[in-house]
């Protein structure tokens, strides 16, 4: 899986900066194959609202779901799933809230291009 981002790539959880800024956005672009692929892990510990936008570019289909984790290592699937077709965009909003979150994705066509926006808000 190839990934490009406005933020440095890391296998660790991206930092939780919501205490300094009530709105945070992470944008990633992925080229995924026909196996299950995962987004970067995002820290959502201070989040009160999370929306994830996904857009598939070109031909193919995408199945995606949010995965939640208490520790950034062990993940479980959230209850909703998203299915997208050619050049379609959709959203996922977590049913469960956890300290860490990522997106699990599976495409039917190798080298499918996907863009993900994590938009996180802390209202206090």
UniProtKB/TrEMBL annotation:
The lineage of its organism: Bacteria, Bacillati, Bacillota, Clostridia, Peptostreptococcales. InterPro entries: DUF6385. It comes from Sinanaerobacter chloroacetimidivorans. Pfam families: DUF6385. Residues 44-122 form the DUF6385 domain. This is DUF6385 domain-containing protein.
């Amino acid at each position: 899986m190839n990934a490009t981002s406005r933020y440095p790539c890391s296998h660790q959880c991206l930092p939780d900066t919501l205490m300094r800024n009530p709105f945070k956005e992470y944008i990633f672009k992925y080229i995924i194959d026909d196996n299950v692929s995962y987004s970067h892990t995002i820290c959502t510990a201070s989040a009160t609202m999370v929306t994830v936008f996904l857009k598939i570019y070109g031909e193919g289909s995408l199945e995606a779901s949010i995965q939640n984790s208490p520790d950034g290592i062990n993940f479980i699937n959230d209850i909703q799933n998203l299915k997208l077709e050619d050049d379609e965009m959709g959203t996922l909003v977590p049913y469960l809230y956890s300290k860490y979150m990522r997106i699990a994705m599976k495409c039917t066509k190798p080298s499918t291009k996907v863009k993900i926006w994590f938009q996180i808000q802390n209202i206090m």
